[in-house]
Amino acid sequence: MRKTIDCRDYPSEVDCSLAISGEEDEVVRAAAEHAASVHSEQDTPALREGIRSMLKDEAPQHV
């Protein structure tokens, strides 16, 4: 199942609206890179585990 994370669920000073979805490892990697470049977080194993714990299952899309 695809996973998703949405910055709007975690308000910050940046007022970011980015949402990322895909396979779990892809989302964790992209979200960690985004957190480092936009939110001034350190890309650490602890950050990635925190991101992993916040992932949600993506709602199925009807074709």
TrEMBL record:
Q: Which Pfam families match?
A: DUF1059
Q: What is this protein called?
A: DUF1059 domain-containing protein
Q: Which organism was this protein described from? A: Streptantibioticus parmotrematis
Instruction: Kindly list the organism's lineage.
Output: Bacteria, Bacillati, Actinomycetota, Actinomycetes, Kitasatosporales
